[in-house]
Amino acid sequence: MLQSAPTYDALRAGFRWDLPARLNLAEQACDLWSRRDPDRVAILDHASGAAVTYGALAALSRRVQAALLARGVGPGDRVGVLLSQSPLCAAAHLACWRMGAISVPLFMLFREDALRSRLSDSGAGVVVTDAEGAGMLAPFDLEVLREDELPPDGAEGAAFDSGPETPAVLIYTSGTTGTPKGALHGHRVLTGHLPGVEMSHDFLGQPGDVLWTPADWAWIGGLFDVLMPGLALGVPVVAARMRRFDVDECTRIVSEHAVRNVFFPPTALRILKAADARITGLRSVASGGEPLGAEMLAWGRAALGVTINEFYGQTECNMVASSCAALFDPIPGALGRAVPGFDIAVIDEDGSPVEGEGDIAVRRGCASMMLEYWNRPEATAEKFRGDWLVTGDRGRLDAGFIRFVGREDDVITSAGYRIGPAEIEDCLLTHPGVATVGVVGKPDPLRTEIVKAYVVRKPGVEVDAGTLQAWVKDRLASYSYPREISFLDALPMTVTGKVIRKELKARAAAETAQD
């Protein structure tokens, strides 16, 4: 855990990675607590109303482990976990890690092609799932372990003799910019997430803390920003599945389980804001995935009663930067400061740190960095420039704060200007008639590209393109306003709630071809 410090500089100066030679995720997240305090609550299951203790969670995971052993699973084998937020989902991952297997999180909203690509690429031969998931897996030739097929007794024995670099979990990227790749992480991945999770929740682990996220546990944001850190820190984690984010259900979950700490993806925050929702009783709210603007931060203070702490990372190397209202005030438009243990820089094409805008990169040696892309040595090599892992995001450093400009392939080049879409999106979102928006570059023979905005209006609100163009002109630079605006009923989104810019870019390119 982070040692408390009066300032950010003191916190950072006093931190060192302490990775033992032997490290097992199941031990770290569950088994240590199950031996020390077996009656301590680990998971609050919203579906059943049950409070699952660490002792019960360890016992359930050992039953999964026994079933996997009976099916021939051994160290290094890949095991799919096709389950939503539930005690069994947590237990399945723990079982894999305890026996030295590699868990592969799979999302319940995947369809056949998405499942096929991940199962085929990973070589998973067994998938732990429920009755719904078993139906989804019918087209595939593999072993399916259903929840009703678990033996009554669990596997005995110590955890596999793993170390920090031993492969543990294979998490696929969201695929917003190409075919999803499997980021292979070692047993050190949870240790690597803990400082950023604690920081983004104003030192998570205070008396009375209860943690929840609407993000699915199939993604790194749900699995390692919430579930496993909560378990490791002894903070009860709420398991509550929502097929689609619903404001009333969200507020009900927070109220019923006395949730004090929430990770809200930006899309969820925007939905809450559009509904004029108010949530009380929270101690911390963290958000990551897309930058928040000043308007959203101000709304959070008024509607949620807290300062939203933004954090930054990606599947390949997560929780590398964060805000922490307990230590310093956020800067609107910035993603926070480097988490203790992480060295972040903006670098050029040669891998040298630069002043001004460049590629956001993280130095090798931090614990949440992937081991490699699964079976893709060339892609792994391309991810690094010397000692730096390149995130693929453009940004700049401002007095230690990271300012996000845009994805490297999202930056708009117009009449000699390089324009990041995030700032324009933030500006448009402050307009009372805008529910959500995606901004891309549209090919233009004169300017190379023009700024094109795709806007979803708030229900019952009429707003036209000219009004929104004037809104941006009045608040940003004259060259960066959207020269074209189209209104849509919905934007293309990933399952994690991010705008799929490549689909909007394809749409804009097709429009140019028709002009």
From TrEMBL:
Its EC number is 6.2.1.2. One of its GO terms (molecular function) is medium-chain fatty acid-CoA ligase activity. Keywords: ATP-binding, Ligase, Nucleotide-binding. It comes from the Bacteria. It holds the Pfam family AMP-binding. Residues 33-374 form the AMP-dependent synthetase/ligase domain. The keyword tRNA processing does not apply. GO terms for biological process: acyl-CoA metabolic process; fatty acid biosynthetic process. Residues 423-498 form the AMP-binding enzyme C-terminal domain. Belongs to the ATP-dependent AMP-binding enzyme family. This is Acyl-coenzyme a synthetase acsm2, acyl-coa synthetase medium-chain family member 2. It comes from Mameliella alba. The lineage of its organism: Bacteria, Pseudomonadati, Pseudomonadota, Alphaproteobacteria, Rhodobacterales.
